[in-house]
Automatic annotation (TrEMBL):
UniProt organism field: Pseudomonas indica
Protein known as: C4-dicarboxylate-binding protein DctP
Cited Pfam families: DctP
Alphabetical UniProt keywords: Signal, Transport
Lineage per the UniProt record: Bacteria, Pseudomonadati, Pseudomonadota, Gammaproteobacteria, Pseudomonadales
InterPro entries, alphabetized: DctP_fam, TRAP_DctP, TRAP_DctP_sf
Length: 335
């Protein structure tokens, strides 16, 4: 009896002395950062820079483990792992949060943002900042937006006009907007985790895809896609997220330092993303394995006109105010 009383008292003591971030007093907080792309991409660089800066500045207090290329968790289970605190940082693309918030679908609307600069402006303004908090009720805290880049269309046949895509099956991320975007041009879609894209294209399960240059090059997708059309039709960006219970359980002073590091890393990732994508575009072109198709303004306008009705289909889910705020960041005058 006495023995079991002691045992439960010891157990209670252990529970109160183990804080919400799970580390025992005196041992470092471990942050596992899992992602699905290669190291040599904007997100891959960001994860490694975060690890480097944390270990330089918070040595002994915080330890960061980076798992790229879906080696720890992949698209199918990473958000569930975050909810269970099995992983503490993720940076899924903004297309992958649909089950938690419909508002982030704004980023998938085709031809909404003219370029990455416009995306940047939207993310910095108040609507964009508010969206970082749009998943709070699911205990997901948005810490920052990280850029990758504008998406290009690749396929087994040349795509110059929207009708060229009719009947092809495109791999998409798990997003209703992207499904609707391809339906607009008569194409089929298949939602597949990023880790399966190369094999699906190689085997012919799907015949096309949409990706920024850095994802195409780092996964060698151009080796299995003979044509890439430079459409810049949408953006692929990320939200750096953590589990709110874990994040707010980190002692205040440490958390403030981590947030300052995140700001620094975000600045670096977002500054270099476009250059990294341009360098990968040049590498793809130099490889000679794929033909790059560029569109003149009239041809690009035809793609925009074909896909644009998707905005209206999703207006109620996303919110007219969010779409309007996003559209307002484009500098070029549109008709
Ligand atoms: C994709 O699934 O195509 C992207 O979200 C992968 C990534 O993280 O860039």
């Amino acid at each position: 009896m006495l023995k079991s009383l002691f045992a439960s008292a010891a157990c209670a003591l252990l529970l109160v002395s183990t804080s919400a971030h799970g580390a025992q007093p005196g041992s470092p907080i471990v942050i596992k950062f899992s992602h699905v792309v290669a190291d040599d991409t904007p997100k891959g660089h960001g994860a490694l820079l975060f690890k480097q800066l944390v270990e330089e500045r918070l040595e002994g207090q915080v330890q960061v483990e980076v798992y790229p290329n879906s080696t720890l968790y992949g698209d199918a289970n990473e958000l569930e792992a975050l909810a269970n605190n099995q992983v503490q940082l993720l940076a899924p693309s903004l297309a992958k949060f649909e089950q938690y918030t419909k508002q982030l679908q704004v980023f998938d609307l085709p031809f909404l943002f003219d370029d990455l600069e416009a995306v940047n402006r939207f993310q910095k303004r108040s609507k964009g900042r508010q969206l970082l908090r749009s998943m709070e009720k699911h205990d997901i805290v948005g810490l920052a937006y990280w850029h990758n880049g504008m998406k290009q269309l690749s396929a087994t046949r040349p795509l110059r006009v929207p009708a060229d895509a009719a009947g092809l099956n495109f791999r998409i991320q798990p997003s209703g907007v992207l499904e609707a975007q391809f339906a607009q041009i008569g194409a089929k879609t298949q939602k597949l985790p990023f880790a399966e894209v190369f094999n699906a294209l190689k085997s012919g399960t799907v015949q096309g895809a949409e990706n920024p240059w850095s994802n195409i090059y780092s996964k060698q997708l151009h080796q299995v896609q003979p044509y890439i059309t430079e459409t810049n039709h949408g953006v692929l960006d990320y939200m750096l997220v953590s589990n709110a219970k874990f994040w707010y359980g980190i002692p205040h002073r440490t958390r403030v330092e981590l947030e300052a590091i995140i700001d620094e890393v975000t600045y670096a990732v977002n500054r270099e993303a476009e250059a990294l994508n341009n360098a990968d575009r040049a590498r793809i072109q130099a490889s000679g394995s794929t033909q790059l198709i560029t569109l003149n303004p009239a041809e690009r306008e035809a793609w925009r006109a074909a896909m644009r009705p998707v905005w209206q289909q999703f207006e109620d889910q996303i919110g007219k105010d969010v779409i309007k705020a996003a559209e307002a960041v484009n500098r070029k005058q549109r008709q």
